[in-house]
Amino acid sequence: MQEPKTFQEAILYFADRNRCVDYLALRRWKDGAPVCPACGRTDAKFLENQARWQCKAVHHHRQFSVKVGTVMEDSAIPLEKWLPAIWAIVNDKNGISSWELHRALGVTQKSAWFMLHRIRLGMSLQRKGFGSAARPKMGDGPRTRRFAMKHAAALTVKPSCKVC
Description:
mainly alpha; 3-stranded antiparallel β-sheet; 7 helices; disordered C terminus
């Protein structure tokens, strides 16, 4: 199946969890071969029932998913909701509100707001050179996230009024 051209096609295209995992794996790692974020090994075994990989080296955080080191990390929202949301934000020239996203994806408005803010943060960091284009090594993802959380106040627009 071709990549989606409309939002409705995107929702249908990303409705399957396995397709979402394969789609992200091909874009994150060279040839879709996963790289352990803790040690950098490339011989991880895929655990089908959990949609995660398990590194063959013995260390903490042996299991990892395709969400590790991305804006989707530490979120209970499934990939089937994240990927259409990302598609909608990237392809909508006028932007999209959390209310529109909530209605289209069937998530709460609070979840839609959370997703929009995470995706916008990731896009702003990408423009500032903190994304996968600037640093292709997967292990750098959590550092990017820590930087974003630490400097979130600096990334927001502050009023220029001296009274404020």
